[in-house]
Protein 1
Amino acid sequence: MDDTNADVSVGLGFSRAQQQLKSLASSPLASTSDEYQKQVQSVAKQLQQCITQIQQLSLFSSNETPDDYSTSELKLILATAYLGDVLQKTTSPDLRVSVLEQALKNYQKFQTTCQDLGIIKHTGQVQKAKHVDAGQTRMHKIERFKQQRAMEQETKELEERLMGDEDDLEEVEREFALKLILLKVHQVQDDIHMVERELEMARQMANMKRSRDEQQDDRVPSSEWRLDPHSYNVDLQTGQHTRPLFNERGQPTRPFVLTNNRQMIKDQVFRPGWALPTMSVDEYLQQEQERGNIISGGGKEPEPKAEIDDNDYDALDAEVVKQREWDDFKDNNPRGAGNMGGNRG
């Protein structure tokens, strides 16, 4: 009686998990959203409970065949495969390695159960070929894809028949369960290869992150010696540091910058070949005025020359005479006449 009740609870739990999986597949939420991840955790917890109950009941044995199990019991074989699918939907970067390891473990359990029950043949460990023909690999993938599409179509047709009013629904349901298991076996083979590749990359990234963290820990300054914070002080009057650059043991007491000829040349790249101004004209005049090089003030400015009145004929005649005398002087004394050298025209 207890086993019967347990079977019923396992079946109900697995049915709920199947419904939740369908909801996840058609969910409009983003896979990285908190609400979606909560649903993923809920489905994973439900499937884990089913798997625990199956193990406690020792439901599947290698001494039996699928004919020894009811249709509802056969469906429970898919629990580990479904759990592997759900675990891959977890997007936590820190837990990615452990999540992929658990998914791979569940996929392998599903394959082992199917092999023990004779649903698929024992393939053993497949050795990876060193040299794989790309053409053969492509043709193999195409063939597997066609097989998977055909199996999906058959499964869909059986599911539609279950929704009808046929007399042999029990036989159709059992055939649907077996086809569903075979389809999942086909999908799990591809999922295992993808998980193994992703797991390898995730482990490499985890090792790189661990190495970076270790390097950062090594860069933490020792408590025995560190730069004195007081050595950063600068004397405001002299502009010099108050502490020497190195102490008696040769340890630096304040930050410094190493410069050399190469760095100076490097800094001058893409600069013009002439000296650029370092201040504006106004700044220069202000600086010169502060130095006292600009004289301001002084005597009175000369008064402007008074204009001659047009009605003052005497003044006009005197101005004309003055201009004529100046013209005569320039004629008698051409430019350069007083030079003693030989640069005359």
Protein 2
Amino acid sequence: MSIIQQHTSASLSDAWRTINIDALDPDSSQNFDTSTLHPPLPEISEPEARQLNSQVRQLLRGGDPEGALRGCLETPVYNGGDAAKDAHMQTVIEVLQSIKASEMTPMLQRIYSSPGGNELLDVLMKYLYKGMSGGSSSSGPKSQSRSLTPQATGFSQFGSRPGAVNESTGAAMSVLLSWHEKVVDVAGLGSIERCMTDWRKV
């Protein structure tokens, strides 16, 4: 066998393709636990979420809508069951609907200029998108669980007229869209990008 044939058979072997290059790289994800990149999030149960929501509603009834909004945004339910997330989502929508349109921008500016305000508006953006996507149980029609009482006219007393659910859903969507516009005006388009790329979901 010539020297050229020996060199060719040794150098053209494809055994190098089976080497795991990532295992040799100290910065590779195979050499450390990637879960350490995500800090642990506190788990919030449904009773804890409802207790928090009652505190927020007390602030709202006391005439402090900004404090109520801050209370919702400072304690988002990232790690919790669907019931806890839905309960908190309902409270957020309730607070947003109670704030006048003329108060939206000044309130958002005060929150944004405060320490950690950028993060709070990003949390608000997450709840806005969840509300617009129908992620909360409050955005859909609810089943009528109470019994129907017959009236003297022969008709049944059925709570609300047909189409009222769609009208309330449309009103809630209008409020969420108005808030979305104001948040973008104050925090910029970067708030949308951070909301879409954040691994923490409400």
Protein 3
Amino acid sequence: MDLYTDRASRVIEQHNQSQPLFLYLAYQAIHWPLQAPSENVERFKHIKNDDRRMVAAMADTVDRSVLAIVEKLEERGMWEDTVLVFSSDNGAQKAWGNNWPLRGYKNSLWEGGIRAVGFVVSELLPSSVRGTVSRQLMDMSDWLPTLVEGVAKHQLGNMALDGYNMWDTLGSAQPSLRNEILHNIDPFPNKPAKFSTDITAAIRVGDWKLLTGGPGAEGGVWLAPPDLGLKNIQPPAGDSLNRVWLFNITNDPAEKNDLSNQHKDVVDELMEKLRVYYEGAVPVNFPPAVPQSNPELHGGAWGPYDVD
């Protein structure tokens, strides 16, 4: 991680401030393998679980790395004109993380798998919104127009984008321009020609969220934090036989009350949206596994390999 931070600091140090700077910094933490400097691990020796102690140390390492970047921006006099976006990409993994009280975990389409934490900090934002929580709907595809058009004030012209410029929403009480998010459609492994409830998918429209197929996470278990003395909550009896779930995700973010039988009209509406998305999508490609790419064959690192 220090390599990334040092490189980012050099970029900032050498930057010509007469030009704009876009810096994308994708740390590998927190992610498997669980590793952190010993001095960071030592700070969390009070955590008994080995994996969770290491995860806390990794989070601490990320915090200190981000602080180093901010301090470098301040040192160069660039912080006042900076918009810092910090975001994770998915919910916590089952083995060492926790998403309680949300349902599911990473690699599932339940909220525990797809809700990600994040924040935006900038002196360019009005003081009235700093330190507040926005619950407006936003998707990762919105960052491109938000940063390019909203922050940098460059026009994207007639580019056909899935995202919206959310800068005004982030800086005020203005409602989100977005009312819909296609979370995923996964036709693996059969790639059927037409969409059906056998395909794993999820979509959010307004307050409603529809899931189909097999959303994962052992049918949608609620995993309790190991240090609170709580028990895991298993999915309702017979839930594993379902192929359609509907939730008012605004009122029920923990996805405990399936409303698919009470609101069949909403199910039909969202199913039609999934069908349109599926039939209009670029065909997916599932290439076969290539054993020669295994990092264990290349010193533990991903890199070029010979398939002969």
Protein 4
Amino acid sequence: MLHVFQTFFSSSMASPKKRLQGLVAATITPMTEHGEINFSVIGQYVDYLVEEQGVKNIFVNGTTGEGLSLSISERRQVAEEWVTKGRNKLDQVVIHVGALSLKESQELAKHAAEIGADGIAVIAPFFLKPWNKDVLIDFLKEVAAAAPAQPFYYYHIPALTGVEIRAEELLDGIQEKIPSFQGLKFSDTNLLDFGQCVDQNRQRQLAFLFGVDEQLLSALVMGATGAVGRPTQINHPTQTSVGKELSLPRSPFLLTGVLYSEIYQLCGQTRFWSVPDQSHHDSGIWDSNGPTPASTAESLQGVY
């Protein structure tokens, strides 16, 4: 079914060169059993996405990539490795550079530009939270200004940030303040908000990337131009060892917990997400929905 989504995005979106659209993989950050980043796997991961799944856009150091659980040094190294290994293979590498510290977020934005990333994304700061649209835009503006030539995306994920400023409100006039603003990664279940984002900004050629897998079909009807998440890495179920036993018409989102384990087998370990028999990691569970931290399983289900 994800092949259908790829066809939909490629055939229905007449877009300028380099516009971010279609399927975007939210990448895992692979770890060794000692909790160190396993950089040796990333090249294989790139080849798997491109050659096996046909996915050529990635979102690095986001929620799935545990970006905010990594040190600034680790985030820089992970970004460098994905850009390097993806050169001449991937179409777009977008780096999430959000942080609680404005200075750290600016540092990561500058670094992304220096290594040749194709765009940057930022979540709202979530400890001392912005209390209205203007405060949030001021923060985003300062980060974007650190890498003014980089396409800039706002990562809207209120379930984790606790920042409930509606995306539709935020988009009103944002390009006047952030000229590099190119779109939104919308990881929320409020389809009314998402629909209004699309309806009120149709003439602006923005990217509307949807990040809640269970609602993607509805988002497509509303005008989503792309999807960011884990199932984007499971393109053709019949090409996987597990998928051969499963019927093709089933929704890929129902298969995520089973097939996504192949990505975890490739990566080996993660720092926060748990896989079977990894007792040395933070307490977690593996169930039919895939790997989730036990303490936040419900809030994270399907939101990337």
